[in-house]
Specification:
The protein contains 3 helices and 5 strands, in the order αββαβαββ. The two termini are 17 Å apart.
């Protein structure tokens, strides 16, 4: 077990199976020392635990927890191409999309769920640049979607 996965275990988390693509794309690709994940939905065992818009059917706190799940799914996607999460030199950027009710403006707080998990698990290597974007709708009516870009150490 990698040190990163040991840290996840200390937090009471396990790395899930990679979420299969919903369309014609790969969950993650590597180019050089960088891995780019596709947008990761908060799937748990193949299902969305909650659907709807944040600020309407979904609370900001629920969405923050869902963003955390998205980040966990992104780590699984990174591992699927990197082979070992201990190869992560740093998380470079996180981009998060929040399906938002028209008057909801708390997208940064929602995305803190993903950012905080990455920092908890990876320490300083998990601190990153980030964009938090409110959108009208996401695939499968998911409340949140997160993509992650990481730099790897040489194999």
């Amino acid at each position: 077990m990698s040190a990163v996965e040991e840290k996840l275990a200390e937090l009471g988390l396990t790395l899930p199976e990679v979420v299969p693509p919903l369309a014609a794309y790969q969950p993650a690709v590597q180019t050089g020392v960088y891995v780019y994940t596709a947008g990761q939905l908060p799937m748990v065992e193949g299902k969305l635990p909650v659907t709807g818009k944040v600020g309407a059917e979904v609370t900001a706190e629920e969405a923050k927890d869902l963003a955390r799940t998205c980040a966990l799914n992104a780590l699984a996607a990174v591992k699927s191409v990197a082979g070992d999460l201990d190869r992560v030199a740093r998380v470079v950027k996180v981009v998060g999309f929040v399906a938002s009710a028209p008057d909801f403006t708390g997208q940064p707080g929602v995305l803190n769920g993903a950012s905080e998990l990455l920092a908890q698990v990876l320490g300083d290597k998990g601190v990153h640049a980030r964009s938090a974007v409110g959108v009208a709708v996401l695939p499968l009516d998911a409340p949140v979607e997160v993509e992650v870009q990481v730099e790897l150490t040489e194999a």
